[in-house]
Each structure stands twice: as structure tokens, then as C-alpha cells.
Amino acid sequence: MSAANKARNKVDNLAGKAKEAVGNLTGDPLTRDQGRSDQAKANLRDAGEKIKDAFKK
């Protein structure tokens, strides 16, 4: 399941980057900030996965 979680984190991170870019293009600070927030959440979950992997070894 770890690989599935890592893939989901990558997709969420890319979606956040896209949302941030749309916010920048449209000048909508709310959308931009939501994209940044989505990226931060994905990065935190990815860090958690890396910690779990470190303890498995």
C-alpha cells in the first residue's frame, strides 16, 4: 500500500502545482493559496511515507 500512497501524494502534489498556476494566471489569490496548501499536505504525507520506509528497513 505504500507505493499507492506515494503515487497518490505525487498526483496531489501535481494537482496543487496546477491549481497554484491557475491562481497565478487568473490573479485569484485564494486558488493560488489552495494550490500551495495542497502541495504542502502532499509533501507532509510523502515525508511520513519516507519515515515509515526507514523504520521498515
TrEMBL record:
<feature type="region of interest" description="Disordered">
    <location>
        <begin position="1"/>
        <end position="57"/>
    </location>
</feature>
<comment type="similarity">
    <text>Belongs to the UPF0337 (CsbD) family.</text>
</comment>
<dbReference type="Pfam" id="PF05532">
    <property type="entry name" value="CsbD"/>
</dbReference>
<dbReference type="InterPro" id="IPR036629">
    <property type="entry name" value="YjbJ_sf"/>
</dbReference>
<feature type="compositionally biased region" description="Basic and acidic residues">
    <location>
        <begin position="30"/>
        <end position="57"/>
    </location>
</feature>
<dbReference type="InterPro" id="IPR008462">
    <property type="entry name" value="CsbD"/>
</dbReference>
<feature type="domain" description="CsbD-like">
    <location>
        <begin position="5"/>
        <end position="57"/>
    </location>
</feature>
<protein>
    <submittedName>
        <fullName>General stress protein CsbD</fullName>
    </submittedName>
</protein>
